[in-house]
Amino acid sequence: xxxxxxxxxxxxxxxxxxxxxxxxxxxxxxxxxxxxxxxxxxxxxxxxxxxxxxxxxxxxxxxxx
Length: 65
Known about the structure:
Blueprint: E1 8-11, E2 33-39, E3 42-46, E4 55-58, E5 62-64
Antiparallel strand pairs: 1-2, 1-5, 2-3, 3-4
């Protein structure tokens, strides 16, 4: 699946923050997220279409809605 900026995605439960061993806050995993930026396998997501960024995650943990 090819992701583009603006796509809506769901994140797999317990996906780590990109490049770290830490997890996102638990509520993030239940939200529909917007793809905000793409750099290779690193996908920046947000709970809103514009405004604050939620974080970055490896694309393998995302499912396009």
